[in-house]
Structures are given as structure tokens and as C-alpha cells.
Design a protein that fits this description.
With 108 residues, this protein is an all-alpha fold. It has helices at 2-48, 62-70, 92-98. It has a domain at 1-51. It contains 3 helices and no strands. Residues 16-43 form a coiled coil. Belongs to the troponin I family. Residues 98-108 have a biased composition (Polar residues).
């Protein structure tokens, strides 16, 4: 009876070994197929190209932009017109008198 059980165990181990070899071969084929699929996906993306979404125009002041970038720490006011000099407009007659050469199309 002991011989019969040992024989049965040997057959069982042989069957397990055979199934393990088949499982290993199938796993190798699956990994190879997965790698090939990934390579093909990359080629498709390269051929088609990556679609960039259309950007929308956003009207934002310099203050709002700095506040968005820096958060609530932003306290500097970016009023660019505040630092400009005030220039008085001169009349056209004074321009004609001060210029050395008469300009074409002018009434001087």
C-alpha cells in the first residue's frame, strides 16, 4: 500500500510540475503581449499627436493675477497709471512756432 501511495504522489508531483511550466509559459506570453500593446499605444499617440485643449481668453488685471499667484500675501497695488507724469497738451499754434522747419500739410 505504501508503494501505491508513493506512486500516486510521484504522479501528482509530475502533474503539478507540468501545470506550473504551462502557467509560467502563459504568463510570459501575456507579459510579452502587454508590452507589445503598450508599444503600439505609444506609436498611436505619436502618430496622432496629443490634442491640446483650446485655451480661453481670460481678462485679468495685474492685481488679480498677482493675487492668484501669491495668494492673500499680495498687498502691492499695481496701478500702473498712478506713476505716470501729467503732461499738458500744447496747442497746434505753439507747435508751429517752435518747430524750425514747416511741416507738410500744416497750416503754418
Amino acid at each position: 500500500m505504501l508503494l501505491c501511495e508513493q506512486e500516486y504522489c510521484k504522479k501528482l508531483h509530475a502533474a503539478i510540475d507540468k501545470i506550473d511550466e504551462e502557467r509560467y509559459d502563459i504568463e510570459a506570453k501575456v507579459q510579452k503581449a502587454d508590452k507589445e500593446i503598450e508599444d503600439l499605444k505609444i506609436k498611436v499617440v505619436d502618430l496622432v499627436g496629443v490634442k491640446k485643449p483650446a485655451l480661453k481668453k481670460v481678462r485679468m488685471s495685474a492685481d488679480a493675477m498677482l493675487k492668484a499667484l501669491l495668494g492673500s500675501k499680495h498687498t502691492v497695488n499695481m496701478d500702473l497709471r498712478a506713476n505716470l507724469k501729467q503732461v499738458k497738451k500744447e496747442t497746434k499754434e505753439e507747435d508751429c512756432q517752435s518747430s524750425r522747419w514747416p511741416q507738410q500739410g500744416s497750416s503754418c
